[in-house]
Amino acid sequence: MFRHRGRARTLVHNLKLASLLSFVAGIVNVAGFFSVQRLTTNVTGHFAYFADEVVKQHFFTAGLYLLYIICFLLGAFFSNLLIELTSKVNQRYANAIPVLAELVLLTVVAVLPATIMQRYADSVVCTLLFTMGLQNALVTKISDSVVRTTHLTGLFTDLGIELSQLFFYRRPEQLSRLNASVKLRFAIISFFFLGGVIGGLGYTRYNNRILFLAIGCLFVGIIYSDVRYRYLLLKKKHIK
Length: 240
Description:
By secondary structure, the chain is mainly α. 79% of the residues lie in helices and 0% in strands. Helix 1 runs antiparallel to helix 6, helix 1 (11-36) runs parallel beside helix 8 and helix 3 (59-89) packs across helix 6.
């Protein structure tokens, strides 16, 4: 799931990756919003708020929204930086390092008391946006830009286009490609929505500790990816 790249990736690989990470993003999105009343998985809305505050000449508040945007950017930057540096040492663990970094950062936020969350709300927002930048860059790189899991605007646009194409593209190879792409986008949207609902329901009872569910999903994903990799290696050795 986290190992295959480029032509080695199949629809099944992308569906597993998309389902897991979009579910995580859905939880973070709702838990972050409920905790600090800010968007914590994408930066589109923050650009609008930034422009609004600049027009009102509230430059300090505008600067905070700009900081949110930069934190997401830095997350994406460091995600790819970690992948490139690790791949020079051990290619096998290159993709796991950003996931481990995401695990650590989400754990930090999950254990914070509610009073601290409110007092340092801007720091929490920056941390979660950095984390989602890490995740989005990782999944984009692994899937060759086929999968994105932290925001839905582009997904709904692409899905609308592809659904309309189903009325016109009739060749078997065209339909196969379109059906695979539509299935993938439905999976991302569905699991993001599911993560958001579960995250919202869980937050009402567990507060920001619901993030431990997202952390658990990431941990299971890493373990599954590593165990399956070892299994396939053993299988190849037995075949030889």
